[in-house]
Amino acid sequence: MASLTVRKVENAKPGRHVDGAGLMLYVQPTGAKSWVLRIQMNGRRRDIGLGSVSRYDLLPELNDIPLLEKCVLTLAEARLKAATLRQMAKSGRDPLTELLRDRSPIPNFKDAARQTYEAKLPEWSAKTAESFMSSMENHAFPQIGELIVSDIDAATIAKALSGIWMKKPQIALKVRQRIGLVLNFAEAQCWRSSSMPNDAVSILLPKQVEGGHFDAMPYQKVPAFVASLNQSMSIGRLALMFLIFTAARSGEVRGARWSQIDETGRLWHRPAELMKGRNAKAHTVTLNKEALAIIKISSQFRRNTTDLIFPSRSGGELSDMALSSFMDDIFGTPHGFRSSFRDWAAEKMPHIPDPVAEAAIAHKVTNKVVAAYKRTAFLEMRRVLLDQWGIFAGSSIFLDNADERVIA
Fold first, then answer.
1. pTM strictly above 0.85
2. DSSP string spanning 71-100?
3. Is the CATH number of domain 6-100 3.30.160.390?
4. Rounded distance, CA 260 to CA 257, Å?
5. What digits encode the pLDDT tens for the residues 67-114?
6. Distance (Å) of CA 244 to CA 191, 319, 385, 388, 403
7. What does the alpha-carbon distance between residue 311 and residue 306 come to, in Å, rounded to a whole number?
């Protein structure tokens, strides 16, 4: 008589737990759980691994996989698979041979990631799909792309993430989560015997700074970096340059729309929903000559199907990776250019009050401070500040012939 229940499986401690009829649940000290079938064949006892225990949240769209090919099993599936293999053994067939019949070779991580992408694509938005592949190509494939997916362990994952774990914490967390998705998919496909070793990876990696940390490029290096971006044009490069010239956040730039731009008044009116924070308010950014030139170049790719200034190829918003990918070999993150701007303002524009610089990057400034300078004068001081920033950051490029620039 079967002795296990779903609740007992969920709460099982390390050790062996007998269900009955040769089916057993093995729980490792790490908490990993797997099913094993013990049978007698030709007078010899054999233990056959059936697969790991399903956590019920693993890729439900894979339920159409034939039972004998499944390596992630619920209690009911484990019992049915065990019964099928016992019948094979009684009829003189080798259960292990049957399990391995017609199995495809185990793919490397890159191929497994692409198959994960194809499996999840129907439920993903265009933005999520693009961000997934971009993060894999930039931060996972170069390190572990060629490794057989069954050979990837916690130490390998930690080493792959080490280069960005502290420098680009938010990107690193996303890459880690996506590596985990691929490994869990691989487990469901029977390409590996375990899922993402999250606990072990956490032990091997240092603790990130609470709340995240954005590395900033020293402001002295910004003009040369902008010049390197200007060597060729793409929507991603244009968006990053616009971010630099306006000292804006990545999400604000990726969500920027033509309807928010007042070219005559040289203003970018950003609605509250585009701004950061639960109690965010609408904010207006003054546009310097360099930012307006970027908008002029971007108009070559303006589409009737979207109001976005910097749309992705699918017409939706660009992913975080579309901007950060240009910084893989540079110290800093897109968000860090806001700190670069503030450092520059403090050192090179000391005659401009600090509240003006804070307002320029949409940090909260009290109404009393704004009133002290009068609202019109306050806005004009912000304009002077960003105009000078544009001249400094764009000093190595020439955007006067914006009509003649072609986006790659």
1. no
2. -EE-HHHHHHHHHHHHHHHHTT--HHHHHH
3. yes
4. 5
5. 777 777 888 888 888 888 888 888 777 777 666 665 567 889 999 999
6. 44, 17, 14, 13, 21
7. 8
